[in-house]
Amino acid sequence: METLNFALPVMDYMAVLPQMILVATALIVLVAGVSKEWAKAGFIGYLALLGSVLALISVVFTGPTAHSFSSFSGMVLTDGFSFFLTLVICLIIVLTIMVSLSYQNFFENIKSGEYYALVLFAGVGMIFMATAGNLILLFVALETMSISIYALTGFHKDQLKSGEAALKYFLLGAFGSAFLLYGFAFIYGATGSLDIIKIANFIKTHPQILQFKFLVVGLVLMTAGFGFKISMVPFHMWTPDAYEGAPTSITGFMATGVKAAAFATLIRAILVPLAPMQGSWITIMWVAAFATMTLGNIIALAQDNIKRMLAYSSIAHAGYILLGFVAGTNFAQAGMLFYLMAYAFMNIGAFAVVALLCKKGEEYNSISDYSGLGFKYPALGLVMSVFLFSLAGIPPTGGFMGKFYIFTEALRSGYVWLVIAAGVNSVVSIYYYLRVVVLMYCEPQPSENPIMLSAISPAVVVALTATTAAVLIMGIFPSYFWSLASNSVFSLM
Fold this sequence. Notes:
Layout: H1 17-32, H2 36-40, H3 43-62, E1 69-71, E2 76-78, H4 80-103, H5 113-131, H6 135-153, H7 160-191, H8 196-205, H9 213-229, H10 238-245, H11 248-271, H12 278-301, H13 306-327, H14 330-356, E3 358-359, E4 362-363, H15 373-376, H16 378-392, H17 398-412, H18 416-442, H19 458-476, H20 479-490
Antiparallel strand pairs: 1-2, 3-4
Helix pairs in contact: 1-3, 1-5, 3-4, 3-5, 4-5, 4-11, 4-14, 4-19, 4-20, 5-6, 5-11, 6-7, 6-11, 7-9, 7-10, 9-11, 10-11, 10-13, 11-13, 11-14, 12-13, 12-18, 13-14, 13-17, 13-18, 14-16, 14-17, 14-19, 14-20, 16-18, 16-19, 17-18, 17-19
């Protein structure tokens, strides 16, 4: 009688420790949210902050691995790349919850357990997107993130524009997910596998597959699906409405976490395994990068709402990061990761300031509302100026160094005209960023509607201090962060 040998898959729970901590915290927060006393005291937010900090500590404790390996039958990949992106996403989650602790002073429903649980579940999806080694897990992670973000976008149930933004985001997001799933199906039909490593090996050993139309169609559909998540033109239409309608604390989360996870999957699932097909996508991505940065900056010039201005700014920054995708080299990919980290700090910091300038039931979203802010609240004006300078790419900030690394590598790869276009766009963006700074320091505050701050929690003070310091340190001493980013790219499986 034959005996069947059943081999259990390698299950390294340390590879998913941050996700396990975040899920456990989310479930505890949901249960704690039943207690009205805890919710009223704001205890739930600090409970979520504790869990997210523990997840961040677990990432730092494990550190980047010297050797790349997979677990759970190749579903989860552990390497320097996954470490870097997990670290960035955990930082984004921690900072978002810190900002939310202050934002909940203005809006009572932010204190609910559902809010913080959705933030944590969205973070879990983002991390799994960055670590997924299989297209099925990648899609499940993307939907986990997306559904949570849809709900968070419409969290201001009493505001019409919030519900409208959530509905638009959901409907367009459904189309983006459909494109992505169809793309995965075509890739599977061409290669016979959903495992990213096996797909890469199959393409290397069967170069004739590059002429197979299924593979090309799959690449196009995947690019469209991911393009929606990174706000790439022409898939950017949802961005300004969603950013404006969402709670301001969530707008920063969407602008940074979603973008970091989506660019991670662009590198992991397209740029690395489908590198031999670079000739098929290079022209399209060149045009997309140019159109994304140009349209984002031009429309941002005409905005009077600061959240919409930062939304179009986010589109423009996606175009800058796409330069690294077009260049395609390892150092270009490292530049993308460096930029994503710097962008996370400066964008969450900027939205944290915007979130502070509101009162019960009303937000100060008009750019003219910032007149005189630098004199009435000097510290707040100073940190906002630092974030805006970094977004504009002015030294010595992390935003400048991020652009420097990406633009330099794009030049080395021969994309001179694209870099010139990016440089011109960067100069154009200075106008609408410095417009806010000029208003803060050169215009008096209107006497009829002076800007006010409510109670500021210690958590948001820590968040603003940390993000300001990080933006300046990444600009003045970038070598450590650059080494971390470049080493993570070279460890890609």
